[in-house]
Amino acid sequence: MITETLVVKERFTNYPDDSFTLARGLTTGAYEGLLKVLKDHTPEEVVEMVKQSGLRGRGGAGFPSGAKWSFVPKDVFPKYVVVNDDEGEPCTFKDRELTERDPHAIIEGALICAYAIGAEAVFIYVRGEFALGVRRLYAAIDEATEQGFIGERIAGSDFSCKVIVHRGAGAYICGEETALLESLEGYRGQPRLRPPFFPAIKGLYHQPTVVNNVETLATVPHIVNRGVDWFRSMGTEKSPGPKIFSVSGCVQRPGNYELPLGTPMRDLLQIAGGLPEGRSFKAVIPGGASAPWLDSLDMTMDFEALGAAGSMLGSGSVIFLDDSTCAVRMAYISTRFFNHESCGKCTPCREGTWWSVKVMERIEHGEGRPEDLAILLDVCDQMSAPGPTYMPKGQCFCALGDSQAWSLRSAINLFRDEFEQHIQEQACPFPLEARLTVSSRSKAP
Amino acid sequence: MIDLKRQATEIVERYPEGRSRSALLPLLHRAQERDGYLSEDAMVEVASILKLTTAEVRSVATFYSMYHLKPKGRHVISVCHNIACSLKGAEQLIDGIEKHLGIVPGETTSDGVFTLERVECLAFCDRAPMLQVDYDTMHGPVHAHSVETLLSRLEPEPDQFDMFAPEFLPEDS
After folding, report:
1. Global confidence as pTM
2. Residue B47 C-beta-side C-alpha neighbours within 13 Å
3. Does the beta carbon of B104 lie under 8 angstroms from any beta carbon of chain A?
4. Does B6 touch chain A (CB under 8 A)?
5. Nearest CA of chain A to the CA of B88: how many Å?
6. Of these four, A10, A253, A341, B92, which has the most CB atoms within 10 Å of its CB?
7. How far are the Cα atoms of A164, A400, B3, B30, B43 from residue B172, in angstroms, in the given order?
8. What is the ipTM of this complex?
9. What is the pLDDT of residues A252-261, one digit of tens each?
10. Inter-chain CB pairs, A–B, below 8 Å
11. Is any Cβ of chain A less than 8 angstroms from the Cβ of B28?
12. pLDDT, tens only, A337-386
């Protein structure tokens, strides 16, 4: 029997009814980490602590958080902390749940970060569609301000900080940190060129800025309270600590499960109730729709192991596919998503996702041509050159185009027979119910 | 009635001095909440308040999927058609709503009550298939057979008109 390791999820798991209130927060340790750093630690010590902990970003890229904080110049003001709460990676739903159920953990983590880098304001960029999350954040900020955790001279210290909620308006690309900053400044959410626009140097309003994911920041108070050794006692050497995995797709109990990094993927499948009765495993997309597909369960859930297996941990959302699933249909849906969300700034992504979805649509709808797989792979290569590692190749302006190429190329490589069968038979071989076809009256856009 | 100019003052104050353009997204949310959509007049008004050109405002308004340049129904039903929801029957759900309302995604019922749209992942995948009502409450799992009950609870009540999730600022009287 596998049980969860409750750290970030602990408060809202134990107190599901009122975990989002400050009253409940204060009985369960909320803001103790903030008070502790203000009383006992210099900003430099906090950065060092997060560095030593080995905490890596929980939003997708897995960048070491302490290093990110240390890149911020000490003598340039003003500085900002921006919370990336624009969760949009398909099948990732941990940040939404955290925002709705434990907003104080996010605010506390962000304030600790602001203290560490010397920021005067925290901006929480929350996904526009998260209406309940927005309400909970506003309420939490009011409560925390009234209690003196936000504002001038917090808890009698010299540290002052504001917290501002900024609501997005629907754009996956704004999860990309430089696009998010553009959006926060009131522009179209399109990514910025790096260099010079590394957020740590030229971030929000071209000032030094740390952009961190919600779950990353919600983890920070636990590191402060319980120490680096405690944190490193979970997970692996290079991927320490607990992580929330959003498990969805063909499982009996989909949900957010918190387990140490390095947990076997089979354990994750088991804790989510396993595959539906009578079905067998087909594939897994281990890190959100951007991650290359895998056809094996024999690996552990950490940055290194998934990288070695030819995929990536990404946001930690795991989509299991069983044998009733049409691989072509799933690849088509994924491609349609990236095409819909391509911001249009660079040609390979704007055109590549558009042509890919056209070709994928005709294959799935029984109109595929013999040359189509070669066309798709060629388009993938023009968006992101093939290679052993999953780092953006620089052909597209940001990683969105690479993600589309990685995902589609892996689907074709793993299930080439199925793609060819669609083309040869001029039909999807899966039965109607399993095929989940777009109804004839409403062709997908 | 929302007074955009008064609200703008309050919203602009949240951001550092000289950064009033950051108020653009929040103000467009408010304008849409007031009118039900973003009219040409509203965009001109927002541009004038923030001292931007209408073209700058329009370029932003057309980029984001939650802003609508045409009127919508009183209730907007957004059904997710991404991976997790598709695996659990999103297409059957969309089909069921189409049959019940007699419209396809992108359309509004002739009485102006419901607009149906397809949307990408809304981070509610553990309760797939899901839909969101009026960009606010998320429902799931929703299956075709429960659509009628769900929609009947959203009967039109003009005085409860609440199409867009508010920005949670105090209302102007």
Report:
1. 0.95
2. 17
3. yes
4. no
5. 7
6. A341
7. 21, 41, 6, 12, 20
8. 0.93
9. 999 999 999 9
10. 168
11. yes
12. 999 999 999 999 999 999 999 999 999 999 999 999 999 999 999 999 99
